[in-house]
Design a protein that fits this description.
The chain has about 270 residues and is an alpha+beta fold. It has helices spanning about 25-30, 45-50, 95-105, 125-130, 185-190, 220-230, 250-270; strands at about 5, 40, 50-60, 60-70, 75-80, 85-90, 110-115, 135, 150-155, 160, 165-170, 180, 190-195, 200, 205-210, 210, 215-220, 240, 245-250. The protein has one domain (about 5-270): Metallo-beta-lactamase, Chain A. The chain is globular and about 60 Å long. The N and C termini lie far apart (about 60 Å).
Length: about 270
């Protein structure tokens, strides 16, 4: 019986087939890795039996959607509510009836937007469950592992969504690496939903920028400078990263500036301490 197989290491989903693919294209790329136990696959039905929903309010009108236990990369999605419709930011592979009920109780999903290909996961299943279009940057078209007519590719450096939201293509981790600007977030001071395009690190006063996080491949200084320059006109006081708890609650724009300066200094001059 055909199933839309899901990579256990990264969560990428592939078109329905009788047998899983020979390899996961995302894990074969240098930004990710094949699991230490080799290429492994699961199915949506198996995930429903092994994981349960983890629903948490991040702030008014912003809900985190994760799973217990975590799966693959372990990110959580964010449901952003606006008066003009709701946007799901990023996806995760597991979702069940509890997630569907929680999302419907908050008004459903009117659009899906995703920071980068590692979080595409089961976006097609989410789209079909809520009849929502998926907005992806054309720059990352090649990384879509499960094509679908619900996917709408956009060009350029930004896309306006209903409710005053804006997708900003910064590149970096992937050519289409995108963040979402929410002007009403943080009690009107503005917020960014960043995935790991801007990675909120363990010291939550800072972010970092990498081509590959698991394999520790840095980005060139010029690329980081371009990413932060693109953010300069936008006001935001808070950043929500890719995982529960990874957020900068205040002075987030200042944190991005300081982090970029530190990063550029490190890769061009070093720190002078040995």
């Amino acid at each position: 019986m055909a199933s839309a197989f899901i990579c256990v290491t990264c969560g990428a989903q592939y078109p329905p087939s009788d047998e899983p693919p020979a390899a996961c294209a995302l894990c074969a790329d240098e930004r990710q890795y094949v699991g230490w136990d080799g290429q492994r696959w699961t199915t949506p039905a198996e995930l429903r039996g092994e994981h349960e929903a983890d629903i948490r309010e991040e702030e008014p009108r912003l809900t985190g959607i994760g799973s217990r236990p975590g799966f693959a990369i372990g990110q959580r999605a964010l449901l952003l509510e606006t008066d003009a419709g709701n946007v799901l930011w990023d996806c995760l592979a597991p979702f069940d009836d509890a997630v569907v009920d929680a999302v419907r109780a908050r008004g459903g999903i009117d659009a899906i937007a995703i920071s980068h290909p590692h979080y595409y996961t089961t976006m097609v299943d989410w789209s079909r469950a809520f009849d929502a279009p998926i907005h992806l940057p054309a720059a990352d078209r090649e990384w879509v592992t499960r094509p679908d007519e619900a996917i709408e590719f956009w060009d350029g450096d930004g896309l306006d969504l209903p409710g005053g939201l804006t997708l900003l293509r910064l590149g970096g981790h992937f050519a289409g690496g995108t963040v979402l600007h929410w002007p009403a977030g943080a009690a009107g001071r503005g917020a960014l939903l960043s995935g790991d395009i801007l990675q909120v690190v363990a010291d939550r006063r800072w972010v970092s920028f990498m081509r590959s996080y698991p394999n520790l491949i840095p980005l060139p200084a010029a690329q980081v400078e371009a990413m932060t320059a693109a953010l300069e006109p936008w006001e935001f006081d808070r950043i929500y990263g890719a995982w529960f708890g990874r957020a900068i609650d205040a002075d987030a724009h200042g944190a991005v500036r300081r982090s970029a300066a530190r990063y550029v200094r490190a890769v061009t001059e070093g720190f002078g301490d040995g």
